[in-house]
Amino acid sequence: MNRAWLLARRRILSSIPVLLIVVIGTFFLLEMASGDAVDAYLVTLGGDAGLAQSLRERYGLDQSALARLWLYAGSLARLDLGFSVAFNRPILDLILERLPNTLWLMGSAIAMAFTFGTLFGIVAGARPGSAADRALSIGSLALYAVPSFWLGLVLSLVFAVQLRWFPTAGIETIASGKTGFARALDIARHLVLPVSALGFIYLALFLRMMRAGMAEVWRQDFVLAARAKGLARRRIVLRHVARNALLPLVTMLGLQAATMLGGSVVIESVFAIPGFGRLAHEAVAARDAPLLMGIIVVSAVLVIVVNLLVDLAYAWLDPRVGSGEASS
Q1: How many C-beta neighbours within 10 Å does residue 202 have?
Q2: Enclosing domain of residue 44
């Protein structure tokens, strides 16, 4: 427990400069973009130069870039993400409203991809070169080559439009009045297709990584020693080969967190899910720089948290990880 706490503390301290780089870099990148939320507002609803000037003064857009960066940093220190020009609402309220939908989508997709990818990878890697190994390897390669948005459209067309097994869009039935377990089932039905579209691609990746890792571990000396002792093949596969092959898979899980968060933008657009990724798309369309900044900062925090959890899981699987940091 002490070793895990020291490892977590070091990771948290090292993430502070990362967040500073993300905030400063994103701020100046958005400053280089042409136009702002007031321009998008005037294009949509119309207005004169006087209205534009008053709106910029109201939202602080008439100040210098350094002054606005300093004000934004002070607001972040108070956990205040600012005010959205496009939605006319506090940014934190918008994010807290949309983020749970994306977390349900991403969490379910990650759990499905990691679980089934690991299981199928163990089946394929238990006997490298077998018929099951070749079939799973070919299938995973074909699945990994499919774009997620195309897979989402196909799943929606087949299972929602033609077979009518699942809803076509949304996170839950609008104004259904359902509560408790009935509402949970309704949300689960709405998530089946988007979770499948997002998770199948990463399932194929985890399968191939697990299979490749097991094929490499089979050639290690300790596995040859276990086979020489006459241990059962199932015990060798599960307790020796699969456990060691799982380590790089856990690392890849953390690296894919940011990619899956970006992929949720496409899936949420295809299935009309009011989530975090779709909110980012709406912020870009409205040129709402404060909202986009808040989304990027929260995304960076999410990625840091996921990688921290992955580091702790890695240390649990391999006691050697973090032991040097704990003793220093």
Answers
A1: 24
A2: 1-86+286-328
In angstroms, the Cα distances linking 111 to 83, 114, 117, 184, 225 are 34, 5, 10, 18, 34
Mean pLDDT of the chain: 77
Q: In the structure encoding, which two tokens stand for residue 41, read together?
A: 């507002």
Task: Report the number of distinct structural domains present in the chain.
Answer: 2
Residues ≥6 apart with Cβ < 8 Å to 297 = 19, 22, 23, 26, 76, 81
Q: Are 268 and 47 in contact (CB under 8 A)?
A: no
* pLDDT tens readout for residues 189-208: 888 888 888 888 888 888 88
Q: Show Cβ contacts of residue 64 under 8 Å, excluding neighbours closer than 6 positions.
A: none
pLDDT 10s digits, 271-318: 888 888 788 888 887 777 788 888 888 888 888 888 787 777 766 766
Residue 323: the pLDDT is: 54
Determine phi and psi for 224, rounding to 5 degrees.
-60, -40
Residue 280 amino acid letter: A
- Report whether 122 contacts 210 (CB < 8 A): yes
Instruction: Report yes or no on 91 lying in a domain.
Output: no
